């Protein structure tokens, strides 16, 4: 159910991110919203701004993040398709050919975090909150930390696709703010994740059209509404802001610096984002220093072959899409992961999460609705763990 926010709450959300604007942006924003919400809006923002200024005068600012150690570095894997794989007839095995559940194989290989995507009202229930909660609780009982990638959509969200859930399609902007707040509160309260993304690869905002990055004030307010809900129901959860690629990433996180989040998250795939590891790690270092927040690769992957194991076209299939120093072989995949791990840790990164680790061709060798990613999974075409998972 959607509930309209009262004026004070809307003022509060807006004023929080107003503090991070320069004078020109603030003048425009106040003029716009004063015309929409009335003179009380301007007065409320002035009071909140004065309060923040007085508080800040007595503080030295937040302490820098704690240094990353071997024990708190996030070494994660996204396994969102795991429930469907378990109900199929696809058999996965350890390096000795013994049948072994994927979570157990990951645990034995040193992975400490499981990432799961959450869709609002998906066609496939494995991506809905009820099923995600079941898998999250199972993983937590095995000792994994939980990272939720909440798409705020009924389907995939990425830089080119940020469709609103159908349930929110015709609500007003003010009602949308409250829907985002209520939904974020509920997800956070139900699972209490260690990490929770507000949106997935939000280079151009989320919840389009209202939250499109071109409507910066609305994108920011929607993000803050989600953040507020998470803070209230899961105060220990670390909030992730997720950007795809390293190009323009520094500008993006400068643009969004007034938002309430804890973790800078980047996606990195050479075929889409560039083949310069030096540029990637330099961006990691710059963001770590300039944001003074945790810095993680929220998504990365690499192939162990150019081949395929079903009739569904893969997103990667030739040498122009990878780094020449790391061949598309089982050993090349392992070397790439270990090299990337070392490089980003040296620049202060706090973690990395492998995407599509579990996405084997579980629907069968002739499936046209199968995996587009089975040649980048961490299990080979016989269902056996690849070298990166082997002890």
Strands side by side in the biggest sheet: 1-2-3-4-5-6-7-8
Q: List SSEs in N-to-C order.
A: HHHEHHEHEHEHEHEHHEHE
CATH superfamily of the largest domain: Glycosidases
Average pLDDT works out at 87
Unreliably modeled segments: 1-68
- Give the overall form: globular
Q: Alpha-carbon distance between the termini?
A: 50 Å
- The CATH class label of the largest domain is Alpha Beta
Tally of DSSP β-strands: 8
Class by SSE composition = alpha/beta
Radius of gyration: 22 Å
Strand residue content: 5-15%
CATH architecture of the largest domain: Alpha-Beta Barrel
Number of helical segments? Answer: 12
CATH topology description of the largest domain: TIM Barrel
Percent helix, as a range, is 25-40%
Largest sheet: 8 strands, parallel, barrel
- Total number of distinct structural domains: 2
Write a structural description.
By secondary structure, the chain is an alpha/beta fold. It has 2 domains: 1-61; 71-389, TIM Barrel. Helices cover 39% and strands 12% of the residues. Helix 1 (7-18) packs across helix 3 (39-57) and helix 9 (249-255) runs parallel beside helix 11. The protein is globular, with a radius of gyration of 22 Å.
